[in-house]
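Annual report, structural modelling task.

Input specification for the zinc ion complex:
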Amino acid sequence: MKNQKVAWIFNRIADYLEMDGIDFRTKAYRNAAHTIETLSLDIEDVRSEGRLQELPGIGSKIAQKIEEIIDTGSLEYYENLKKETPVDFEALLAVEGLGPKTIKLLYKELGVKNLDDLERETKRHHIRRLRGMGDKTEKKILENLEFARKNTGRRLLGYVLPQSREIQEEINKLDIVERVEIAGSIRRRKETVGDIDILVITQNPDEVTDFFTSMKFTEEVIAKGSSKSTVRLKNGLDADLRVFPEDEFGSAFVYFTGSKEMNIELRKIAIKKGLKLNEYGVLRDDEQLAGKTEEDVFNILGLSYIEPELRENRGEVDAAALGKLPDLVGYHDLKGDLQMHTKWSDGSSTIKIMAESAKNLGYQYLAITDHTGTLRIAGGMGDEQIKMQMKEIDQVNQELEDITILKGLEVNIDSDGLLDIKNELLADMDVVLASIHSGFRQDREKMTDRIISAMENENVDIIAHPTGRKIQERRAYDLDFNRIYEAAQETNTILEVNAHPNRLDLSDINIRRALEAGCKLVINTDAHKREELSFAELGIATSRRGWAEKKDIINTLPLKKLLKNFNLN
Ligand code: DGT
Ligand code: CA
Ligand code: CA
Ligand code: ZN
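The model returned the following structure:
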């Protein structure tokens, strides 16, 4: 029951040890935390069977600590470390550029314990007085602070979505449950999620609530009432459960899907019409005019149905009033995937396995796009390997039916905008993606020039993960998007929506701007193993949040049309 808590404590201990530079013990605690985080069993069960030390990375000392946490709910060793250096690690570590050692220095010298302290000391220019720091460090900290504030406590959609579906399924198994839906930011497919909002229709709220507060995912009950309960899940997130009768479910679903900002717009429209809108329905005086379905609620307000991914108060309400909502790309519209990696570079599946998996997803084609030359950490391929790989692709294409493997590469754009594979070889490929993997912090002009010069190479078809951001990890490069979008059109280069859970790059907002500027997009998973081909859903969701239609996405095209689009064959 306490897996998440134990792992969390061990990770914090590792942070404290890292502050003091004790590397081997840091590693031991991180390993133990990882083991417990990914354990499919309840750590308490493992303990009561006396099998803790059978787990990888858990020796007698760490096992003792696990027992102490299970028995007492805390760990004296950790409490002492905390007293010594009482800082909000999770928040401070989220500031790019701050590691445990710097955090210790900031605490010892300036008493910085949290993000507010950090901001204050930075603005007073106290940081630059410290050893190894300067006005540049202060500037960087201020830039990264806001990013850290926005991110603490939120989780990636890609990880929460499967978990929320699992919970939904469990609740749905109850006979007394007529309907269960996930609402909130998860339903809107926002890239990060604060908590899980669950709505249920049932005649028997108490029984559903009892189940919810004691199910296997629940670690701790925060509030328990008959129409609303909140629990802390073992994965560390909170989940809210709300129970509604059938004839109010539509209005509750609209309300709790949000966004809050869109709800406020809807309420204004209701008021103008002399109506009242809340989670219980659309009311005139006390009479409920609508509330059973979402469609009813939108329609009575004079709006067409708004897809959840659009509900961010970014113009969708006006568009719905005018009947001008986009016809969004669908979750089953992709015909192929044009970025993935195999054992030839840093992937872990073979070409054949990737192709078979793509076929199982119903695709007509896939492109194998392993890393090239200069990207050593990713096992980049040289000319000879590329030629050998092309032969293997020919061979697998002969073996498999109803799926076409395209020969592709993900080449690197160097700090001068040059590619690491020569043009005559690139000309032999079906699909060439170019992307930046180094030198992220050049100035805006230079970064933009690099990408544009890659676009100007006639062999380059796609710019992969165009902004380089990693959600909660790394900010986007500084780019002049107007120039990028213009060059993409002039050079007929496609911009990628990378569907990897921590990339989603382009982001929803950038997708919308790119489309308004007239660019074409491709949704790719960047899969490094076959299971990751399922990330496509996240790329589609993000594209929908960016108002993308089927016609905007080139890999909704059947193979022949796609090839024509690339001027191939
Ligand atoms: P999150 O959890 O931070 O990722 O984002 P949401 O959108 O899921 O927000 P949450 O969980 O606080 O609330 C779920 C929905 O309930 C939200 O999208 C809209 C609705 N809601 C919550 N509080 C308010 C409020 O004060 N006013 C209005 N109009 N709606 C609210
Ligand atoms: Ca939420
Ligand atoms: Ca909530
Ligand atoms: Zn890779």
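Residues 184, 195, 197, 240 surround calcium ion (ligand 3) (CB under 6 Å).
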